[in-house]
Design a protein that fits this description.
This is ABC transporter ATP-binding protein. 32% of the residues lie in helices and 26% in strands. By secondary structure, it is α/β, with parallel strands linked by helices. It folds into 2 domains: 233 residues, Rossmann fold (3-Layer(aba) Sandwich), CATH 3.40.50.300; 241 residues, Rossmann fold, CATH 3.40.50.300. α14 runs parallel beside α15. The chain is globular and about 75 Å long. The termini are far apart.
Length: 504
């Protein structure tokens, strides 16, 4: 089935999320839609899937213009979509999830679950999915859950398959397996739209590449294009993709974590007997699929978790049981994984956000009075130093792009006297230009003698920044390995396997 999107425009108030976007996907073709988070990729695919209605433009399948009032119409027309966040019921079996919303009945109106089982087996055998129709979804690895989503779409005879950021939660091995599945689907004649911001994956699997930026198509490229060429199209300027980091001998031990356990109110253990150290002038990067205790680990270091056991010592001082204010004042900087929920106050100005963790004393508050002139001077300096693109320091934080919001957070944390920087997903949702800048700031902090803990689900980021890599799985440390450890070894460790020579 041939898909043509012609001049699709979608507005949300004054925001133009898609601006006259056109693209064509042929049967038996993998067409990558490449762009940074917020570029409009998912909005465009939600229009295709009937979740949004386009304000202008048309969708054409095999020469016939379509009018979708909802996802049901899109599915009936042959469109299937695998969302970034899976739409599965964890306590249902694979077969039950596949038939959900498309139930068939047998004698006396009973659900024909056996028909669903047969359909799962047929599709699994055809494409080599190896999925048990009777397995509970909650018991399946993330990569297999994604196959269930694909089976669900194929069971409804999807001829155009949309994969929205499909590798975001996968290990490297699971990503490789998905690429092989995509090639098999292509060979069977499916038209595939592959939405991503990962350059390496695009070049590996795509037949054609369309790049969008700020809601517009800014270029088309072949898979033979270099990463630098694709990044330049995405950002609009040349970008340095390589992190330049000189070898450095670490100094004294700054952070020592021993036997750390984090337990939630229901008694679930999210961090289980974790121990590690970080020395001054060293970056320890934490690798692992999202949801393996990384969030709880970083929050425990900042005093944000209530039920913590074990020891966290910063320059010899025990931090477990101390307040967040005390920990920050002890020289800990924190870049949270969700800048909007935890890193910024959107209704505050840039200047006000830059003083959030220093609102109780010098240099911005004296004798209980805010020193406005000092704050404004400081804020203007940081706008220039950190290349924050804004009309001025009085602009509201929620008016900034994601990359500029993240730069405000980085500027605030690194402009203090920090001994330890905890950076959780430091470049999530920002463009490659901002990634380049933020990486340089983290390395500069390390070179100045700061101890740095970077937590990232992007393996490329981990490998680029780390002096050592700690891999976590289900709340435990699988091993701590040198920065040069091969990606396939790291990928195996992310599934819980410990290779020889990996420190526990």
């Amino acid at each position: 089935m041939k898909l043509v999107l012609r001049d699709i425009t979608k507005r949300f108030g004054s925001l133009v999320a898609n601006d006259a976007i056109s693209l064509t996907v042929e049967p038996g073709e993998i067409h990558a839609l490449l762009g940074e988070n917020g570029a409009g990729k998912s909005t465009l695919m939600n229009v295709l899937y009937g979740l949004y209605q386009a304000d202008e433009g048309e969708i054409e399948l095999d020469g016939v213009v379509q009018h979708f009032s909802g996802p049901g119409d899109a599915i009936a027309a042959g469109i299937g979509m695998v969302h970034q966040h899976f739409m599965l019921i964890p306590v249902f079996t694979v077969a039950e999830n596949v038939m959900l919303g498309n139930e068939t009945t047998g004698f006396a109106g009973a659900l024909d679950l056996e028909a669903a089982r047969r359909r799962v087996r047929e599709i699994s055998e055809q494409f080599g999915f190896d999925v048990n129709p009777d397995a509970l979804v909650e018991d399946l690895p993330v990569g297999v859950q994604q196959r269930v989503e694909i089976i669900k779409a194929l069971s409804r005879d999807a001829q155009v398959l949309v994969l929205d950021e499909p590798t975001a939660v996968l290990t490297p091995q699971e990503t490789d397996e998905l690429m092989q599945i995509m090639r098999g689907l292509k060979e069977s004649g499916k038209a595939i739209v592959f939405i991503t911001h990962k350059l390496r994956e695009v070049r590996e699997v795509a037949d054609k590449i369309t790049v969008i930026r700020l809601g517009k198509v800014v270029g088309e490229a072949e898979p033979t294009a270099t990463n630098a060429e694709l990044a330049s199209l995405m950002v609009g300027r040349p970008v340095e993709l390589t992190v330049h980091k000189e070898p450095k001998e670490p100094g004294a031990e700054t952070l020592a974590v021993e036997g750390l356990r984090v337990i939630d109110a229901a008694g679930r253990v999210h961090v289980d007997d974790v121990s590690f150290t970080i020395r001054a002038g060293e970056i320890l990067a934490v690798a692992g699929v999202q949801g393996n205790g990384q969030t709880e680990l970083t929050e425990a270091l900042l005093g944000l978790q209530e039920h913590v056991e074990g020891s966290i010592r910063l320059n010899g001082e025990e931090l477990v049981g101390r307040s967040v204010r005390h920990i920050l004042d002890s020289g800990v900087g924190f870049i949270p994984e969700d800048r909007q929920a935890e890193g910024l106050v959107g209704e505050f100005t840039i200047a006000e956000n830059l003083m959030l963790n220093r609102s109780h004393g010098k240099p911005f508050v004296r004798h209980g009075t805010l020193q406005l002139s000092r704050l404004e001077e400081f804020a203007e300096e940081k706008l220039e130093e950190y290349d924050i693109r804004a009309p001025g320091a009085t602009a509201l934080a929620d008016q900034l792009s994601g990359g500029n919001q993240q730069k405000v957070v980085v500027a605030r944390e690194l402009s203090r006297d920090v001994n330890l920087l905890v950076a959780a997903q430091p470049t999530r949702g920002v463009d490659v230009g901002s990634i380049e800048f933020i990486h340089k700031q983290i390395v500069a902090g390390r070179d100045a003698g700061m101890a740095v803990l970077v937590v990232s689900t992007e393996l490329d980021e981990v490998v680029s920044l780390a002096d050592r890599i700690m891999v976590v799985y289900r709340g435990r440390v699988v091993g701590i390995v040198p920065a040069g450890t091969p990606r396939d070894v790291l990928g195996l460790m992310m599934t819980g396997e410990r290779p020889e020579g990996a420190n526990a």
